[in-house]
Amino acid sequence: MTKKINLFANLKSDFASGLVVFLVALPLCLGIAMASGAPLFSGIISGIIGGIVVGYLSTSHISVSGPAAGLTAIVLTAITDLGAFDIFLTAVFFAGLIQLILGFAKAGSISNYFPTNVIEGMLAGIGIIIILKQLPHAFGYDNDFEGDQAFSQMDGSNTFSALFNIFDYIQIGSIVITVVSMVILISWDNFPFLKKLKLVPGALIAVALGVILNEIFIGSGSALAIGKEHLVSLPVPSSFEEFKAIIVTPNLSGIMNPKVWVVAFTIAIVASIETLLSIEAADRMDVQKRYTDTNKELKAQGIGNMVSSLLGGLPLTSVIVRSSANNNSGAMSKMSTIIHGSLLLISVLAIPVVLNKIPLATLAAILILVGYKLAKPATFIRFWEKGKYQFVPFIATLLAVVFLDLLKGVALGIIISVIFVLKGNLKRAYYFRKEEYEDGDVIHIDLAQEVSFLNKAAIKQTLSHIPENSKVIIDAKDTVYIAHDILDLIYEFKTTRAVDNNIKVKLKGFKKEYQLENSTDIQNYVTIEHYYDAAKRVMVKKEIT
To answer: The SLC26A/SulP transporter domain covers which part of the protein (predicted)?
Structure first.
């Protein structure tokens, strides 16, 4: 049963996190638009629609949508091939329609088959990319556009060579503002008396102080003054007519052009995959361990892309960097992403001149801390301790994401995970048996001899449909191998969802090597219900009391 969400229940924390995401999203929207060869304002439009429209329609609590760096190459090539931006918008509209159809076809269920170690490797890889890409901006070297995640950059250099180029373009004023911003951000998270000011996020203080410092540098004629090439660069219409000219609408005459449909299908598939990956990652980051309906997410993304194209915006996806910033800033519900979209809309209409005074160095400091939280050393240690079957896919995904791209990295991680499963676990024949159960019944879940991440979807579905006030016995006495994904899933069910729905869970039969992390309150052993699905290997049986 889906509970009704009160968007205003956590307005204090959601507004603070929405403000932080707005500050992060503004230069990213502009940078991605510039790299895509599209009008700069198209990136802002996409960010606004991703925040307000997709944010409202989505069931994700912390995911943020907007223009994605992963689509820049596709968009740039498509605009060139189609010959006009308005014809490209037609392709974006039909891409959204295709995503809407995929949502109704329940294609979002594919996200259940992304292994946790691969998702964590992707997040850590993105974290490293953020740090490496933002260091040049922190030192005043802004040759690469904001939001770029590719190892090979459009300026001919790469992520590593750009770091060495820093020394030829050091801007002392940028370094000063970066250091001051970092001190504020770290202090805001670690000093108790500052946490009481949670409504005012540290990122806002850092941005405000960065602007003030640079204005002082400029006013005093100091060599520390940061030039406009190192500041946010938002288009500023001088009149209402000029503002109306910014809005481009789709040219539907391109509907009969085969190239339009090729672009539409390409954007729909790539954007959908990136969205599902980001949603799975966002659910992993969510401290409340809430699940997103990925089929509804595809529908929301489809509608978002259709609306964005009608207003002249870029294609959008759920994006990890902004979602990570949202989570790290304490977002509690999807109200934060709606607030970020609303702030984008208000700011570009009301205060574009003020926004253009924000130093990129301050935003670099914010993003570097976001990157660190995604790629903490503790994450590497945790997967190393889990053994090679968890660590190798994790580190392979991370490296491929950094040196290739997100989709190739995830694909490599999944391939390695599947090879390990096939190598270590022979397939066995199982039978399917499922019975209806009611409130108050004792439900037994008995695991098979081998339970891999491929069983995650079936077990997640079973646990999500257990009625309130039930008693669940999860038994793994016959189990030889259990994937860490499944252990994490059971632990999250017992400690969060079961508590919320008054479900009593008894775990038994797990061997010591399959103990749940942080589960000292569950007897050091775990149990699982039988929900055997011929392909999924889980069986459910009922005991009426």
So the answer is: 11-397
Domain co-membership, 344 together with 438: no
CATH classification at residue 440: 3.30.750.24
| pLDDT tens, position by position, 159-209 | 787 788 888 788 898 999 999 999 988 887 776 666 565 556 778 888 899
pLDDT above 90 (res 395): yes
Q: How many domains does the chain have?
A: 2
105-119, 420-434, 505-519: the lowest-pLDDT one? 420-434
Would residue 138 count as lying in a domain? no
Residues 327 and 435 in one domain: no
Question: What span, in angstroms and rounded, lies between the C-alpha atoms of 398 and 401?
Answer: 5
Distance, in Å, from the CA atom of 85 to the CA atom of 93, rounded to the nearest integer, reads 13
**Is residue 360 within 8 Å of 137, Cβ to Cβ?**
yes
Can you name the residues that pair with 442 across neighbouring β-strands?
Answer: 471, 543
Residues 310 and 401 reside in one and the same domain: yes
* Range of the structural domain that residue 506 is part of: 430-514
Q: Name all contacts of 505-508 with Cβ < 8 Å and 24+ positions apart.
A: 505/472, 505/474, 506/471, 506/472, 506/473, 506/474, 507/474, 508/473, 508/474, 508/475, 508/476, 508/477
Distances (CA, A) of 286 to 283, 289, 290, 322, 363: 5, 5, 7, 14, 23
521 or 513: which carries more pLDDT confidence?
513
Q: Flag whether 5 is in a domain.
A: no
Question: Residue 35 in contact with residue 143, Cβ under 8 Å?
Answer: no
Burial class (CB in 10 A: 0-12, 13-18, 19+), 106: exposed
- The CA–CA distances, whole Å, from 289 to 221, 284, 430, 526 equal 52, 7, 30, 19
Q: CA 482, CA 511: separation in Å to the nearest integer?
A: 10
Do 436 and 407 belong to one domain? no
